[in-house]
Amino acid sequence: MAQFRNFKMVDYVVYGRGSFNQLDEILAPQRKGDAPMIFLVDHFFEGKELPNRIPLRGKDKILFADVTFEPKTKQVDALAQQLKDEFGTVSGIIGIGGGSAMDLAKAVSLMMTNPGSSADYQGWDLVKLPGVYKAGIPTLSGTGAEVSRTTVLTGPTRKLGMNSDFTPFDQIVLDPELTKNAPVNQRFYTGMDCYIHCIESLQGTYLNEFSKSYGEKALQLCQHIFLEKDVWDDDCDNKLMMASYAGGMSIAYSQVGVAHAVSYGLSYLLGTKHGIGNCIVMNHLHEYYPEGVDEFKRMVDKNKIEIPVGICKGLTEDQFEAMMNVSLGMKPLWENALGKDWEKIMTRDKLRALYEKL
Ligand code: NAD
Ligand code: ZN
Fold first, then answer.
1. 160 and 146, same structural domain?
2. Is the CB of 99 under 6 A from ligand 1?
3. Contact yes or no for 172/10 (Cβ under 8 A)
4. 278-308: pLDDT as tens digits
5. What is the CATH number of the domain that holds 210?
6. Domain boundary among 164, 179, 194
7. Pair 224, 322 in one domain
8. Which of 132, 170, 199, 248 has the smallest count of CB within 10 Å of its CB?
9. What's the 58 CA to ligand 2 centre distance in angstroms?
10. Can you tell me which atom of ligand 1 is nearest the CA of 151?
């Protein structure tokens, strides 16, 4: 293994309010004969104005993606099969939505060319062939899915991403106007995903100057948006979109930490969604991130958000065991958070006590 990671990034980035209007122009050179572009759009936008602004040509198709639950390998496989049956091949997949719709688009693009099931590729560097052209257009800011080399999927046996050099988007369109009407709670939870990425990266043992530079900038933007602003305005949307990008770049060269490792267990067992799950856990991590957790709580208060409590009440012994197994399996996250001797610090008893508090 080489000492320094040589990582693949997104090829093209456009940023600006209204940049969505350039989509037709951006996609034109990517069209292959009459093979269609497929727009995988978050189902929230069904019947809204955004789909009418999508530059459809020829056999292009809009598919609304059900993101009630986080993406599953089965859902990815079914979408890819549907497209292969209908069109044979496509020019590209354009994911428009939050982290879920963007992850679906990345995964479906890869499964248009790679044989088998997406579940076969959950892990690191298992994907062998480039997918079809793919673009990501966020309508919620925070996950960093727009810049990452993974697409997080729940499969038959695990919740794990397809991490590979073929996973990042070829193009992203960062248009903060698209996040304008996001519901306050959802916007906060996904925004806190970004804030937590910063804390976990900046307090981690994997930190280097590359991650630190992006992490500090993203953190500063989050602090401004969630602590200094009294009303949410366009400036907040502009800044949060860049915070998400920079937070994603920060963890690309470091790793996330305790909140994510514990939250993965919740999500696997209880289906708790990523943003809110991270908030539920962060609320109880004072021992690991004292300043970050104090500040997080100030953000929760200032923005008048309720963070659920008591979600692990009444779980059985087996259920606690299952969550702990998923969580402790996230070795790089724990090592980043607590160092090489993390197993001595985060014992099963300690983790169990933490889950019981949630
Ligand atoms: P999401 O995509 O799951 O969407 C949450 C809700 O917001 C959905 O109901 C959706 O319909 C709605 N929504 C989206 N945009 C909206 C808008 N503009 N207005 C109103 N409603 C809108 O939420 P998320 O927090 O962005 O993404 C979470 C997902 O991202 C999880 O599946 C998680 O695993 C994944 N994730 C991926 C990465 C990565 O690097 N690939 C990183 C972090 C999280
Ligand atoms: Zn996250």
1. yes
2. yes
3. yes
4. 999 999 999 999 999 999 999 999 999 999 9
5. 1.20.1090.10
6. 179
7. yes
8. 170
9. 37
10. 41
